[in-house]
């Protein structure tokens, strides 16, 4: 039998095993590399997304703090660079102004030169600002973040928008380089260094987020205050369709003025005239007394004649005077002036959250003076008390007070020193919701828009003007009664009783804006900056 010699094959199995081990090792290393790559990609994506939403969170903090009634308000810039205070930074804990202004810092603001190209000279789009084009320290004010816990966004910059902010310019013409971008409710416009009364400034809110792993995202929003406004048929307007929805008697007179045209405002207004004192109603207007005079137009949804409540714009007792009814001058004969169309004003929002319905101040305590902004229950003033409501920086950023009701007794006085909004709730059956029978108010700014009273409910309002009776009343569902000698401003109510002889002077520049305590800065655009 033949025998095979295997000595020549000795060690071959080891070679095969080593080759197999090398192959398996290569496969294992490849799988490990792929797994680590997937992990790194996933980690980077998560970090990038975390940075993006952190930057969005920074923008939302700014928007919340920009609203009227915020618990942590910020003072918004009112001018463009290079003025001091034209750039506001909201900064997280540990971030300093030097981090933002120093080139080479990972927190350096390398976008600002594109937002204000006129101030920085030539800039290249989509290229970070050069070291010499960083934020100017003289322009800056800072405030700490109030986020309840540390977030990865590092700072939020708030500025007014310049019209040639690139590449999102309103009007790129260099002649308009330092014009302010304004919002007219539909489009951005550039009309000058300030926005006209019917427009509002656009704000650029830019937020930078940097994660611990180094992911960096920069987000920018353009936002503006959205107003709800409309054109009133008259400065005193009753929304009710009832007989005598608006009553004027006791030798009361009407006239008009324009507070926006006064510098400074005066009392009485320097441009007050006994014309343009228009009044109106969705029902009938009642006039009484021999010297009562409507120095303006009477607007009514009824036929423009004098007669009964059911078929005429006016009911008359005595010999009052009015210029026109629904645009037609006396004598009022057939065919009657065409009835005015119904007018439905916007209703102020109900305060949210609602104020308490308990008495304020609590027993055995006195009301603080000045009264801090906030939410209060059923407030009672008495005993010749004077309570000051300190106003906000401007009419677009008023100090906001939310009250369930207010009763004034004993010659008490409510003193207004700047832009203030009183939002009433009238919960728990409070009625009247505002009663100044035993007191009065005084608005020392002499600008009606600086004292706005909003109320959505149906409780009664009794308003008494004191030394400076300047105010705007937005209470389209409530009966309002006037007391005192004069009232300057504007009033919308369900019914209006001015039969005690209160003279009414319409501020034709007053806004019918409904001021809300909700986040009201509306987003015009949102973008991410890729560098």
Please explain how this structure is put together.
With 531 residues, the protein is an alpha/beta fold. The chain has 2 domains: 62-227 and 518-529, no CATH class; 236-507, no CATH class. 13% of the residues lie in helices and 32% in strands. The protein has helices at 12-66, 97-101, 112-115, 117-120; strands at 87-91, 140-144, 153-160, 181-183, 188-190, 200-201, 203-210, 216-225, 236-238, 246-248, 254-257, 279-281, 285-288, 293-300, 314-317, 321-325, 359-360, 374-381, 386-389, 399-408, 412-416, 420-424, 434-435, 439-443, 451-455, 461-464, 470-483, 486-498, 503-507, 521-529. Strand 4 and strand 5 form a beta hairpin.
Q: So what's the overall shape?
A: elongated
Distance between the amino and carboxyl termini: 84 Å
How many strands appear in the DSSP assignment? 30
The rounded Rg comes to: 33 Å
Strand order of the largest sheet: 2-1-3-7-8-30
The assigned structural class equals alpha/beta
Secondary-structure blueprint:
Elements: H1 12-66, E1 87-91, H2 97-101, H3 112-115, H4 117-120, E2 140-144, E3 153-160, E4 181-183, E5 188-190, E6 200-201, E7 203-210, E8 216-225, E9 236-238, E10 246-248, E11 254-257, E12 279-281, E13 285-288, E14 293-300, E15 314-317, E16 321-325, E17 359-360, E18 374-381, E19 386-389, E20 399-408, E21 412-416, E22 420-424, E23 434-435, E24 439-443, E25 451-455, E26 461-464, E27 470-483, E28 486-498, E29 503-507, E30 521-529
Parallel strand pairs: 1-2, 9-12, 9-28, 10-13, 10-28, 11-29, 12-14, 13-15, 14-16, 17-18, 18-20, 19-21, 20-22, 20-23, 21-24, 22-25, 23-26, 25-27, 26-27, 27-28, 28-29
Antiparallel strand pairs: 1-3, 3-7, 4-5, 4-6, 7-8, 8-30
């Amino acid at each position: 039998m033949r025998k095979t010699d295997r000595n020549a094959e000795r060690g071959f199995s080891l070679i095969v095993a080593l080759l197999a081990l090398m192959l398996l090792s290569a496969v294992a290393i490849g799988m490990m590399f792929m797994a680590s790559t997937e992990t790194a990609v996933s980690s980077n994506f998560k970090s990038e997304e975390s940075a993006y939403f952190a930057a969005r969170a920074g923008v939302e903090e700014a928007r919340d703090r920009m609203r009227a009634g915020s618990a942590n308000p910020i003072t918004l810039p009112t001018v463009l660079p290079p003025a001091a205070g034209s750039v506001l930074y909201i900064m997280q804990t540990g971030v300093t102004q030097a981090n933002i202004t120093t080139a080479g810092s990972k927190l350096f603001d390398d976008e600002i030169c594109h937002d204000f190209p006129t101030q920085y000279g030539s800039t290249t789009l989509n290229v970070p600002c050069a070291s010499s084009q960083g934020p100017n320290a003289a322009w800056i004010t800072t405030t700490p973040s109030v986020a309840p816990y540390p977030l990865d966004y590092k700072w939020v910059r708030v500025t007014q928008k310049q019209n040639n902010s690139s590449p999102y310019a309103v009007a790129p013409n260099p002649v308009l380089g330092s014009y302010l971008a304004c919002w007219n409710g539909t489009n951005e416009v550039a009309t000058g260094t300030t926005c006209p009364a019917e427009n509002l400034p656009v704000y650029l809110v830019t937020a930078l987020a940097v994660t611990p792993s180094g992911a960096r995202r920069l987000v920018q929003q353009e936002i503006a205050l959205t107003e709800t406004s409309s054109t009133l048929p008259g400065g005193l307007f009753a929304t009710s369709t009832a007989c005598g929805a608006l009553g004027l008697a006791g030798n009361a007179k009407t006239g008009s003025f324009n507070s926006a045209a006064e510098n400074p405002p005066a009392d009485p207004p320097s441009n007050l005239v006994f014309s343009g004192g228009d009044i109106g109603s969705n029902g009938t207007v009642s006039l009484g007394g021999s010297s009562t005079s409507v120095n303006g137009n009477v607007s009514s949804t009824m036929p423009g004649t004098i007669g009964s409540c059911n078929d005429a714009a006016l009911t008359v007792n005595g010999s009052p005077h009015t210029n026109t009814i629904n645009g037609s001058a006396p004598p009022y004969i057939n065919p009657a002036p065409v009835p005015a169309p119904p007018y439905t004003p916007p209703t102020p929002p109900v305060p949210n959250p609602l104020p308490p319905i308990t008495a304020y101040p609590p027993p055995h305590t006195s009301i603080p003076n000045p009264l801090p902004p906030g939410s209060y229950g059923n407030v009672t003033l008495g005993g010749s008390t004077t309570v000051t409501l300190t106003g906000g920086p401007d009419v677009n950023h008023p100090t906001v007070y939310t009250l369930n009701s207010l009763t004034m007794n004993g010659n008490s006085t409510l003193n207004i020193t700047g832009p203030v909004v009183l939002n009433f709730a009238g919960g728990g059956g409070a009625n009247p919701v505002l009663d100044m029978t035993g007191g009065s108010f005084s608005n020392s700014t002499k600008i009606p828009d600086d004292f706005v009273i909003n109320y959505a409910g149906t409780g009664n309002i009794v308003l008494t003007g004191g030394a400076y009776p300047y105010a705007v009343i937005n209470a389209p569902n409530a009966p309002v009664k006037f007391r005192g000698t004069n009232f300057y401003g504007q009033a919308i109510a369900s019914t209006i009783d001015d039969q005690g002889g209160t003279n009414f002077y319409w501020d034709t520049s007053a806004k019918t804006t409904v001021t809300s305590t909700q986040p009201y800065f509306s987003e015009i655009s949102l973008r991410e900056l890729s560098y």
